[in-house]
Amino acid sequence: MDPLLEIGVPSTHHRSRRNLTNQQRQMIFEMLLMKVEKGKLKRGSIPEVAAIFSANPKTVRKICQQAMACFTNGLVVDVSSKLPRGAGRKQLQIDLNKVSEVDISRRTNIRSLSAAMKVSKSTLHRRIKEGEFQNGGKICFGRMLQLEKAFGFCLKLVQCKSK
Fold it and tell me: Domain of life, per the record (predicted)?
């Protein structure tokens, strides 16, 4: 199978402006390195590589310039994207200890638990789906399970010392 198809390069060779993944940018750089002769890039290699990756030739040229800048400064060549990571709305932090502080009778369903914790139902439901909380009866008995584990551990210590 073609290695370019494995990393998400479409088979059609049309040019459009799009964001490339860091893996694709690295592949472009490596392909450009293969086209270097006597310390210079072959004529027409940038549009050729751009056509293979369905990228704009300007983007490929910028990747090449970025690599050359790293090389001339004596740094490790890094052609990764400079787009900011972690943009967008930040996740609301929920204190997991609040769940154990809520009365057991208020932990029976998501609506009453969210009201007691002063968190929206959808946020609480999303966290349950993400696995941050244990859903169902385990929310209700979370504190009891912790006590049971602690009691079981203490019981094992007493049994070991008595033998």
Answer: Eukaryota
